[in-house]
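Exercise 7. Given the encoded structure of a 226-residue chain, write a plausible sequence.
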């Protein structure tokens, strides 16, 4: 893992590489008793989790920004981003308490500082609406649904970065109405190589405040997407 990360992430310090390796080792170990990731081989964790997530630093300036990772699961992309860019003020949000408890235990041992919140995206936003420079999310839901959960967190001028897969363009087309209704605009699709594939992240710029009626309760979001 260390050798691959040194090769793929030459801008990181030895200490940052060591922290990523320690997080990877903790993830693989905990995955033996808790479902955190389907990716369990060291090199694959390094490439498909760490290199993938840290590539977002090329899509948008993160230095000194307040960032929320919505539906972070085992900490992706938020934790690798924080390790690679320590000046980020990070909030990790997920509704699964066991995963968040694990992150609460492991991150302090690695010296990674983050606010860890167990909660639903459509509910936690009531306490911090439009207070973040950047929201990130990785493979949580289709983009029209995800935008309603994430864009209300982002301040005007900030960005929502949605990490997506092979159907990115289809999801962007489907979500254009929703994104506009929520105060956003698709700025670009950022493409970057990971392993033998091209991965994509949708960069959505927040151009105006999100109307107060959004986000709706999740059952309604799911049943009647914008």
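Solution.
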């Amino acid at each position: 893992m260390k050798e691959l990360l040194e090769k793929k992430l030459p801008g990181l310090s030895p200490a940052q590489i060591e922290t990523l390796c320690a997080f990877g080792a903790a993830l693989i170990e905990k995955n033996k008793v808790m479902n955190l990731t389907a990716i369990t081989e060291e090199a694959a964790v390094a490439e498909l989790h760490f290199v993938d997530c840290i590539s977002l630093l090329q899509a948008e300036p993160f230095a000194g920004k307040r960032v929320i990772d919505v539906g972070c699961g085992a900490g992706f992309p938020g934790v690798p981003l924080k390790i690679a860019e320590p000046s980020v003020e990070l909030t990790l949000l997920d509704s699964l308490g066991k995963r968040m408890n694990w992150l609460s235990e492991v991150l302090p041992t690695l010296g990674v500082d983050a606010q860890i919140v167990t909660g639903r995206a459509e509910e936690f936003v009531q306490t911090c609406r439009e207070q973040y420079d950047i929201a990130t999310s990785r493979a949580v839901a289709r983009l029209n649904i995800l935008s309603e959960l994430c864009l209300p967190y982002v301040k005007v001028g900030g960005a929502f970065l949605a990490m997506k897969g092979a159907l990115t363009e289809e999801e962007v087309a489907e979500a254009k109405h929703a994104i506009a209704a929520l105060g956003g605009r698709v700025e670009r699709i950022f493409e970057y190589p990971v392993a033998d594939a091209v991965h994509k992240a949708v960069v959505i710029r927040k151009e105006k405040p999100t109307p107060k009626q959004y986000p709706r309760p999740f059952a309604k979001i799911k049943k009647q997407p914008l």
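Remark. The longest strand covers residues 154-164. Students should compare their own answers with the one above.
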